[in-house]
Write a structure and sequence with these properties.
- By secondary structure, this protein is α/β, with parallel strands linked by helices.
- The protein folds into three domains: 155 residues, Glutamyl-tRNA reductase, N-terminal domain (Beta Polymerase, domain 2); 143 residues, NAD(P)-binding Rossmann-like Domain (Rossmann fold), CATH 3.40.50; 102 residues, no CATH class.
- The protein has a six-stranded parallel β-sheet, covered by helices on one side.
- α4 crosses α6, α7 packs parallel to α8 and α14 packs antiparallel against α15.
- The longest helix has 29 residues.
Length: 448
């Protein structure tokens, strides 16, 4: 049977400088999903890459070989630099641990900000790519849909989402703490994605004086600016826009820094060294870390937000405990479904034999009743199919329940013999002798 493996790194196991290198590598032209046909031991695969995590969810029959192939994929085909000590940052979850971890991720219990809503959308996006590349089948299809349902249940049955606020919220809180108040401050948002949109909402609540948006795609910048009564600035004039800003929040998808040491230093002279705060919530980072060395310039990256996020942590943890109980319950349900797969081949064989018998008997019946019209034939077909379905329902449910027990093999043997499914056994009517008819079957002796 296939194993479910989740291998990755996140904000808990790797610093931002490592995560951004991996994020850059994973955005190259060679999508990891493209490599599945070249992996001998990996059967299904989903790839998730966000600013705070990079994870491979996959199935394989040989554990060590499958894990080894995914690690090699990170190193060679994805292009991860050899300077990164990969194993020291990775975590590997197997089977039920992998299922639970995925449910935790989908429900935002494993996020930097517990309860933030963005991760579920990112996970759905990763699944859409996997479907598009045809790298998922029965097992991961079922698991991913189950993860989405679990996340919905957690949102419905707990208040974890209401006390969350995204990373962008933590960024605004940090800015408020630095300045004491933000009412007279000018904000420059670099990027017009979801992070920027959330940041704009939070800054408006803080009552900032103005918001300016810079984005590579002008249409998106105009759209965001219109919504929040902000201004726009051409992306190629971004550096000049630093002259009038007090707070800069950057969240682009650029593969390398878009604001460097010289860009800021030259503008600080024109600002007469008025303090400038950068909050870089992008991975890879948008702001060169050396910018922090300039006098009166302060750069905070996504890992620096952790202290702000810890605020009100206890309230979130209370909701998280309830959510984790739901996840534990759903993990058990998924385990039961996986175990029921052990009985599937036998169940399929029983159904196939029953259907074969039904079709044979229908042919005999119809040949003896040539005057039946099409409607009558269809009625008889539906009737016999219904009888077979109802007759097999109880045995099949029995097998599914027993699939979760160690004695499954015994019950499988019972079924195979009862329905004469064992290869080599006589087919047809096969008249028995009197002694064979009265002798107790071998599998009943076994059961004793």
């Amino acid at each position: 049977m296939s194993h479910i493996i989740l291998l990755g790194m996140n904000h808990k196991t790797a610093p931002v400088e490592v995560r951004e290198q991996l994020a850059v590598a994973c955005r190259q032209e060679v999508n990891p999903l493209h490599m599945l046909p070249h992996l001998k031991h990996v059967e299904e695969m989903v790839f998730l890459s966000t600013c705070n995590r990079v994870e491979f969810l996959f199935t394989c029959s040989a554990l060590s070989e499958g894990i080894g192939e995914i690690k090699a994929l990170l190193r060679t085909h994805v292009g991860l630099p050899t300077s990164i000590p990969l194993d020291s940052y990775l975590y590997v979850h197997k089977d039920l641990e992998a299922v639970k971890h995925l449910f935790m991720v989908a429900s935002s219990l494993d996020s930097m900000v517990v309860g933030e809503p963005q991760i579920l959308g990112q996970l759905k996006g990763a699944y859409r790519f996997a479907v598009e590349f045809r790298t998922v089948s029965t097992l991961l299809n079922r698991l991913m849909h189950r993860a989405f349902s679990v996340a919905k249940r957690v949102r419905t049955e707990t208040c974890i989402g209401s006390c969350a606020g995204a990373v962008s919220y933590a960024a605004v809180e940090l800015a408020a703490k630095i300045f004491g108040q933000a009412k007279d401050k000018k904000v420059l948002l670099i990027g017009a994605g979801e992070m920027a949109e959330l940041a704009a909402e939070h800054f408006l609540r803080q009552g900032v004086r103005s918001i300016t948006v810079a984005n590579r795609t002008l249409e998106r910048a105009v759209e965001l600016a219109a919504r929040f009564k902000a201004e726009t600035v051409p992306f190629n004039l971004l550096h000049d826009a630093l002259k009038g800003a007090d707070i800069v929040v950057s969240s682009t998808g650029a593969p390398e820094p878009i604001i460097g040491y010289r860009d800021v230093r030259s503008r600080m002279r024109e600002r007469r060294n008025r303090p400038l705060f950068f909050i870089d919530i992008a991975v890879p980072r948008d702001i060169d870390p050396k910018v922090n060395e300039i006098d009166n310039v302060y750069v905070y990256d996504i890992d620096d937000l952790q202290g702000v996020i810890e605020f009100n942590k206890e309230e979130r943890l209370n909701h998280a405990r309830t959510a984790e109980h739901i996840i534990n319950e759903e993990t058990i349900k998924f385990r039961n479904w996986m175990e029921s797969l052990n009985a599937v081949p036998t169940i399929v064989s029983v159904r196939e034999k029953a259907e074969k018998i039904r079709q044979n008997e229908l042919r005999k019946t119809f040949s003896q009743l040539p005057d039946l019209n099409e409607r009558q034939r269809e009625a008889i077909d539906i009737l016999t199919a219904s009888i077979i379905k109802k007759l097999l329902h109880d045995p099949i449910m029995f097998l599914k329940k027993k699939a979760q027990r160690d004695s499954l093999a015994v019950y499988m043997d019972f079924t195979l013999q009862l329905f004469n499914l064992i290869e080599g056994m006589d087919e047809g009517d096969g008249a028995q002798t009197e002694s064979e008819q009265t002798e107790e079957p071998s599998f009943l002796k076994t059961a004793k």
